[in-house]
Amino acid sequence: MRRNTTIAALLALAVLIGGCAGQEDLPAASQAPSSQAEALQPPRQPDSPQESGGTEAESESSYAALHPYVQSLVDGVLEEIYTPGMSEYERTKAAFDYMIEHTYLEEPIGLSLWRVHGGGEEPIPYLEQRALSPLRFEVGMCEDYAAALTLLLRGMGLQAEYVPGLTYSVEGHLVDHAWTAVRIDGTWYHLDCQLEDNITRHGRIRYRYFLKGDATLFASHLWGRRLAESGLLDGQQQEAVLSQYLLPDCPQDYPQPEPGSFEETAAPDLEALRAEADAEIAAWEAENGPLPPMKLNTVPPVFGLEGYGPADKG
């Protein structure tokens, strides 16, 4: 699903969701202000973050089997986009295109649904929690886009990481954001499907934020060691970045593909989707009793619920 409208500032939910760069038309990488700092069977996952070239932030659970419900959502998308024999680049582009064509920038929906589809006594990991809404309802914020893309890439056997950082609002302010990094043919690249979605118009994808190297993305994004040493974070945030979110170098841009196109669809009926999620939970509770209270893993890393920079104005 596509959207061509802006969103309001984050609303209060039963479970609060952190900040996200949700502005209508953020500067492209070359335009940002310079003044501020093969089968669908489960593929083999890396044995550790170090093997993957990833960050230490990836806990052991990140490489273990997903929650059954989240796994079913990932598998459903992969059945649509994956073909045996696809190259690493083709797999990456298929997942990137899917996220843009099928995701609407809005508050996530149905965050507790996994609890009535396989459940569990403990919260599911952050990436699985944040990926649920875009994979099931095609709705989410930047954190949800990034989490879902990361799981789709991993589901196709690629090494991928969730990246917390900063980017520029349309007013030129740095705001908290999230995107994805992927390893293709031994080289790491940045992917920002949510910002790409923001600049997509009339069903045309320009690939301005697709498989970019560090030098290109630093024009509009800030992350990793450079973010930690920027003087913009407090001590706890610096420690989190340095200990958990240092990416491997992304030394170059991948050749940019020609613009692509797809058929735009109407914006989703958000109220109907929320009602659908609520009805599933109500039906389960009618048979099993109320779900016990649980604090879900929704808090964005580094920036928390308050986010960074001025409040998003849409």
First and last CA, distance: 19 Å
Q: Which residues sit in consecutive blocks of at least 5 with pLDDT less than 50?
A: 1-19, 21-28, 30-63
Number of helices: 10
Describe the strand arrangement of the main beta sheet, using strand numbers: 7-5-4-3-8
What fraction of the residues are assigned to beta strands by DSSP? 5-15%
Silhouette: globular
Number of strands: 9
Broad structural category:
alpha+beta
Mean pLDDT over the residues: 84
What fraction, in percent, of the residue positions are helical?
A: 25-40%
Order of secondary-structure elements: HHHEHEHEEEHEEHEHHEH
Report the biggest beta sheet as strand number plus sense, adding barrel if it closes: 5 strands, antiparallel
Q: What gyration radius follows from the Cα positions, in whole Å?
A: 18 Å
Write a compact overview of the structure shown.
The chain is of the alpha+beta class and 314 residues long. It has helices at 49-52, 68-81, 88-102, 126-137, 142-155, 193-199, 214-217, 224-228, 235-244, 270-288, and strands at residues 104-105, 139-140, 159-168, 174-184, 187-191, 204-205, 210-212, 221-222, 260-261.
